[in-house]
């Protein structure tokens, strides 16, 4: 393997103001390529993942002490091009990582935070933030068991697609919500037992008529009216996991008010529960669950779908300029699977 030449200058995306409008909040700047410390590595990014929460971060909702300018992007996959003398990852190794500042051409981080993978194929990237969110939350908070009914909202998205398959592999009956007939067919193709297109079916009526006893577990990422319907549809001892509230991300206020004052009286009679899940708080579980996810992928037990925007009005998302386009595309509601951007095409990509 030829040693990659490291330039002196790189580009990255920084937020220069607080706003949920990613394109307005950010700009691309040039900056010196950082040198890794003794226990650090320098990664040349191939792909980066787009997440609904990217605009929550540019809006300043995750860290009250954060002040612009600050780096953006949560996750990437690439190749190690330099390593400190105390690093446990070698130059030339392909790695996945989850660390703030991924929207850049090069990324420095502690070697212990990198997850070695066989190559930089894009199908591995959804396993990171999306796959870990789905698997850990459904196991730790959902406590899913074979025979239970699991409802996944936004099921055709990056995390949703993997939540559907994780629950199916656990022997659950899986319901998934989506916004088009094309996505209904996509969900059926990955094993979803009941795909609900809420644009053509009344979501709450479907649950009431087809699942009169309620659902055991909900993997919820939408918020607003969807959240209310899910709460009302919980079974006795039902568990609802909040992994996001995308319906409120684009607003300046960030959250569409829900009827939370009635929540206690809805949960108490059913001994039901609602828990928030933020994957960054579960770092000690990453290695175990990433190993499981990779094994399932390699063994053909799950499929990992990526959307590089080839059918979008922007065309394929490439380089840092494609990140804002990819964020807009995610929020258009037309994406399927994990939206990703190819930062560098010198890896002989076949996509």
UniProtKB/TrEMBL annotation:
Enoyl reductase (ER) domain segment(s): 21-341
SUPFAM superfamilies reported for this sequence: GroES-like (SSF50129), NAD(P)-binding Rossmann-fold domains (SSF51735)
EC number of the protein: 1.3.1.48
InterPro entries: ADH-like_C (IPR013149), ADH-like_N (IPR013154), ER (IPR020843), GroES-like_sf (IPR011032), NAD(P)-bd_dom_sf (IPR036291), Quin_OxRdtase/zeta-crystal_CS (IPR002364), Zn-ADH-like_protein (IPR051397)
The entry's keywords: Oxidoreductase
Keyword Zinc assigned: no
PROSITE patterns: QOR_ZETA_CRYSTAL
UniProt GO cellular component terms: mitochondrion
Root EC class: oxidoreductase
Classification via CDD domains: Mgc45594_like
GO molecular function: 15-oxoprostaglandin 13-reductase [NAD(P)+] activity; zinc ion binding
Family: Belongs to the zinc-containing alcohol dehydrogenase family. Quinone oxidoreductase subfamily.
Name the UniProt record assigns to this protein: 15-oxoprostaglandin 13-reductase
């Amino acid at each position: 393997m030829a040693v990659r030449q490291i330039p002196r200058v790189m580009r990255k995306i920084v937020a220069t103001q607080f706003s949920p409008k990613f394109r307005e909040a950010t700009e691309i700047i040039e900056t010196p390529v950082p040198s890794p410390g003794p226990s650090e590595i320098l990664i040349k990014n191939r792909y980066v993942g787009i997440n609904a929460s990217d605009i929550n971060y540019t809006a300043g909702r995750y860290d009250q002490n954060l002040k612009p300018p600050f780096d953006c992007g949560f996750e990437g996959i690439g190749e190690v091009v330099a390593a400190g003398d105390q690093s446990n990852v070698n130059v030339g190794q392909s790695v996945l990582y989850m660390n703030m500042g991924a929207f850049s051409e090069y990324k420095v981080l502690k070697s212990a935070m990198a997850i070695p993978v066989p190559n930089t194929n894009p199908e591995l990237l959804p396993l990171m933030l999306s796959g870990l969110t789905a698997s850990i939350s459904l196991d730790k908070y959902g406590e899913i068991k074979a025979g239970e009914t699991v409802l996944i909202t936004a099921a055709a998205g990056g995390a949703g697609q993997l939540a559907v398959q994780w629950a199916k592999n656990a022997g659950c009956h899986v319901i998934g919500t989506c916004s088009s007939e094309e996505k209904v067919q996509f969900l059926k193709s990955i094993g979803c037992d009941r795909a609900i297109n809420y644009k053509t079916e009344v979501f709450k009526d479907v649950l009431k008529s087809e699942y009169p006893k309620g659902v055991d577990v909900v993997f919820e990422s939408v918020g607003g009216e969807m959240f209310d319907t899910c709460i009302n549809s919980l079974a006795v001892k039902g568990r609802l996991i909040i992994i996001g509230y995308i319906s409120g991300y684009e607003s300046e206020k960030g959250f569409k008010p829900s009827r939370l004052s009635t929540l206690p009286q809805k949960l108490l009679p059913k001994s039901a529960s609602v828990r928030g899940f933020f994957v960054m708080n579960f770092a000690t579980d990453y290695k175990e669950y990433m190993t499981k996810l990779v094994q399932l992928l390699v063994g053909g037990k799950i499929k990992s779908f990526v959307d590089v925007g080839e059918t979008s009005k922007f065309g394929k998302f490439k380089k840092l300029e494609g990140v804002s386009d990819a964020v807009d595309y995610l929020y258009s509601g037309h994406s399927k699977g994990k939206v990703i951007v190819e930062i560098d095409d010198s890896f002989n990509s076949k996509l």
